[in-house]
Q: What sequence folds into this?
């Protein structure tokens, strides 16, 4: 459909709720952690991933089959949602799904940075955004980061990436480029939203997502001890930090953890913050952020049941299912135990 004409949230929300019932739950994840890749693929074949497993099974096997099936299913699910949507609802959903364009840009840049094989990069791409097959193919064929930026010159990412490229050349780290992509995405996402109450609530959710991204970036910098200016990686649009407060707090991990714990997100992230103080890894905190966003989206979906928020809540839940299954498959391939794999999952 298109963004022209009237919106149709009642119809789209009803379709999305029907699909949400087919998402995997705790029991399915526990079963998968005790299977090998071939068994996982067979399990997926008997669920909502059956069409993708059958279509791709003659060309791929093992973890590659699972990866390709997950990404194709995710793209087809989200394409269907856009096909159902009309008017302003279409616009809001399309904006959010452009997060996968940002994901793909960062994935291709990482591939160029590490000289990865084109096939190894392609398996990690999620074709659920706005980029068409021709642009995706050109990105995959780009043999350098500079060539990737050339492919993106006519997109919202071109100018920010070109501006960040000089710092990348000086430091030889990808942080400036990846942050430029994130900032371009969120700036577009948050601009010109509508003013009714459900959309204001949705905007609050998006601001929380920006806050969590800034918090994660600040914690990474605080943990790293690197001589990097945190203000340079600040993403506008959230409520929790200002550019100057983020720069100050990122210099002291204890103060940063205390600040987040005392904020409006303290209840959701408190346990993870306590674990972060004792651990050497950000993994638990990042998982808690993912879980908090899922819970926040679900809560908004109940407050405004006929709006964009239940649709975004489903998109997050479906994305998380994909990431969980991918983590299980990769964990099995790496020889991790079921308990080690379960610690990598986000389950709410």
A:
């Amino acid at each position: 459909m298109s963004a022209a004409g009237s919106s149709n949230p009642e119809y789209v929300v009803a379709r999305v709720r029907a699909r949400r019932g087919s998402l995997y739950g705790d029991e399915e994840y526990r079963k998968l952690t005790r299977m090998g890749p071939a068994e996982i693929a067979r399990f997926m074949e008997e669920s909502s991933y059956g069409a993708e497993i059958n279509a791709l099974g003659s060309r791929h096997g093992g973890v590659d089959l699972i990866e390709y099936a997950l990404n194709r299913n995710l793209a087809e699910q989200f394409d269907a949602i856009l096909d159902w949507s009309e008017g302003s609802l279409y616009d809001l959903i399309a904006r959010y799904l452009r997060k996968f364009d940002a994901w793909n840009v960062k994935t291709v840049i990482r591939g160029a940075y590490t000289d990865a094989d084109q096939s190894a990069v392609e398996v990690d791409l999620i074709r659920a955004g706005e980029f068409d097959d021709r642009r995706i193919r050109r990105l995959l064929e780009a043999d350098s980061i500079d060539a990737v930026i050339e492919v993106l010159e006519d997109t919202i990412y071109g100018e920010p990436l070109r501006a960040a490229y000089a710092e990348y050349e000086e430091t030889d780290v990808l942080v400036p480029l990846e942050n430029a992509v994130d900032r371009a995405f969120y700036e577009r996402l948050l601009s010109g939203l509508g003013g009714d109450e459900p959309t204001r609530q949705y905007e609050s959710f998006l601001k929380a997502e920006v806050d969590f991204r800034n918090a994660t970036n600040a914690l990474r910098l605080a943990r790293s001890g690197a001589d990097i200016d945190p203000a340079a990686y600040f993403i506008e649009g959230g409520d929790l930090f200002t550019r100057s407060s983020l720069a100050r707090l990122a210099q002291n991990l204890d103060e940063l953890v205390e600040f987040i714990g005392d904020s409006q997100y303290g209840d959701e992230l408190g346990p993870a913050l306590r674990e972060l103080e004792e651990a050497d890894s950000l993994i638990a905190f990042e998982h808690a952020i993912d879980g908090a966003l899922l819970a926040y989206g679900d809560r908004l979906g109940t407050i405004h049941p006929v709006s964009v928020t239940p649709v975004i809540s489903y998109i997050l839940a479906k994305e998380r299912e994909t990431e969980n299954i991918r983590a299980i498959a990769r964990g099995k391939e790496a020889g991790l135990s079921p308990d080690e794999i379960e610690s990598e999952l986000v389950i709410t």
About this structure: The CA atoms of residues 92 and 308 lie 7 Å apart. The chain has a mean pLDDT of 89.
